[in-house]
Amino acid sequence: MLKLKRLGIDTYKEHVVYLRRDSHVCLAEGFEVHTRVLITYKGKEISATLQLVDSDILSTDQVSVCEYSWRYLDAEEGQTIQISHAHPAASLGYVRSKMYGNNLSYGQLKAIIDDITLGHYTDIMISAFLTSCVGGRLNSKEVIDLTQAMINTGDHLHWSQAMIVDKHCVGGIPGNRTTPIVVPIVTSLGFIMPKTSSRSITSPAGTADTMEVFTNVDLSLEDMRRVVNQEGGCIIWGGSASLSPADDILIRVERVLDIDSEGQLIASVLSKKIAAGSTHVVIDIPIGATAKVRGQHMADNLKSLFATVGQALGIGVKIMISDGSQPVGRGMGPALEARDVLAVLENNVNAPQDLRDRALMIAGHIIEFSSQYAPGQGYKVAEQVLTSGQALRKFKAICLAQGGMRDIPVAPFSYPITSRTHGKVSIIDNRRIAMVAKLAGAPNDKAAGVDLHVRLHQPVLKGDVLFTIHSQTHGQLQYVLDFMSKNETIVQVAQV
Predict the structure, then answer these.
(1) For position 450, what pLDDT does the model report?
(2) pLDDT in the model for residue 219
(3) Regarding beta strands 62-65 and 2-4, do their DSSP bridges make them parallel or antiparallel, or are they unpaired?
(4) Catalytic amino acids?
(5) CB neighbours of residue 290 within 10 Å
(6) What gap in Å lies between CA 278 and CA 161, rounded to an integer?
(7) What is the dihedral of CA 243, 245, 249, 252, to 10 degrees?
(8) pTM recorded for the entire structure
């Protein structure tokens, strides 16, 4: 039995516990670094990875856990917890079976997902499961069963309305911030859209990061229901709601491995939509050389799998194939993307047209789920809602219901990157320009990021500004410029 002390260490979605190396528990139990331990606190149990401390930040009778575990346990400083050896995860045998090419049943997949959610798997074990599923190794039944297992592990939302709509973009395109435009458009027409969105893991901003510029996104399930019942929709951080909780854990390891399992992607997307109570969803699949989906063949496979799994689990799925050859909008980073979103909602003549068109296209597909609207009519209806100012009024109402609407911050430091030659823009590297925005401080510094001033095939003159870097400190700006000196092909201009 040890007393809790809060150190405030962020490990994202990994349970970690911290003990003094010379504590009586470590000495008695023979605990070493990376030992898996079982933590028991007020009737709750988690398995965690042990890290040892040799300084006086902890005393020998104290223990600390990471912020993720602290929140999960609802811990209180000074209270006592019990630590013992963790039980081995029996489902790991199913992972080994999958490594050798065997098919897994629903029960086996459910056991794996349960153990992952409960923290019984280390990151190494999770990576073993993920890699055993890549390369088309999950058949369609396994993808259906995996999706169902992920749904059944977390909370479920239920709504009184017959149709609950949602949207998702497969990703890989910076600035593609359509959700804050789509939600107010469709909810203005009476649709119900309880939108849960992600924060950034590797991109300059997630939808939740951008929305947080405007208002509060850390809503409980009760507050989420209140906002949706009041306004017809919400835009909140999915991490504050325990919907398909295994998903965030799997994504965290997937991003480190830089692997894209088609089956896991389908399960990830649809499990969260179904758990949130959605009955109909539009999936945007951008295709581009530096996007997540790089060719038509992969897009076709995803489209087929989405349709198969959606039909099996009773959710209507509509696929939209879009251009992923370059960023969407101008801003990359929470505040810069928020500025673009507001410009579209305000019908500003200088608003990025590509972001406006993409949002209207997605909203149009959602609108056409209703039998009240004929096929092909949705885009025009969405555009009327946007141009009338109705969508802007609804967006402000949603922000107020979530906690109030804030002003958009501006970074104190900026630096323009100019063209060194005359010509036409031939390449805009999605991944590298996103890296520049992150090095500038996004998404942690809300105002940091990149403003893109050119589009593909646009003529430019020598000295024209290609993009502008924004940062919160002069030091961060210098750090980015040093990176730029070694990576000069982020935006390429071909001489003509």
Answers:
(1) 97
(2) 92
(3) parallel
(4) 260
(5) 20
(6) 10
(7) 10
(8) 0.88
Beta bridge partners of 51: 18
Q: Which two tokens stand for residue 454?
A: 């050119």
Structure confidence at residue 238 (pLDDT): 81
Q: What's the start-to-end Cα distance of the chain, in Å?
A: 73
For residue 447, which phi and psi values (nearest 5 degrees)? -85, -10
Structure token digits, residue 183? 């939600």
Helices 140-151 and 296-313, interaxial angle, to 10°? 60
CB distance 82 to 41 below 8 Å:
yes
State residue 201's pLDDT score: 66
Residues of the chain with pLDDT under 50: none
What span, in angstroms and rounded, lies between the C-alpha atoms of 97 and 103? Answer: 8
Alpha-carbon dihedral 462, 467, 471, 475, rounded to 10 degrees? -40
Tokens matching residue 444: 């942690």
Q: What is the DSSP annotation of 394-453?
A: HHHHHHHHHT--PPPP--SEEEEEE-SSSEEEEEE-HHHHHHHHHHTTTTTSTT-EEEE-
Token digits of residue 233:
């929709």
CA distance 231 to 192: 9
Dihedral of alpha carbons 299, 305, 310, 316, sign = positive
pLDDT for residue 247: 86
